[in-house]
Fold this protein.
Amino acid sequence: MAYQLHYWPTIQGRGEFVRLALEAAGADYVDVARQPPAEGGGEAKLMQRLRDAHNPRPSFAPPFLVDGEVVVGQTAAILLYLGPRLGLGGVGEADQVWTHQLQLTIADAVVEAHDTHHPLSNALYYEDQREAALQRAKDFREKRIPKFLGWFE
């Protein structure tokens, strides 16, 4: 049975990391919201599954992965789940935890990059916080990016 990835069809955000892992492994998966509604997909199908009252372990928001009876939400948890199954994580517990740590550090960098456009509130448009965004972006370019890249180096 194919994995079912549930993520917004037009956003390259947190779900893109899951798509990349599935593609890199050549995994059999369905990107549900990108499938036509006539084939059982679409954004409405994603929302139906997200709001499923019978799911004992619901996801807070997309992305989430369905593997049979298992539903896993949050990018880091999905990748932690998929890594050993797809042969993408390290061998043994120490390497698997290290791979997970790398992914969490990448997630931290992504959040900081996102926040350069929304430094005051993600509910506000960029145009409404442009001055603060310019300051935040400058700090991110000058201090945070070098710190993250230096650590990964």
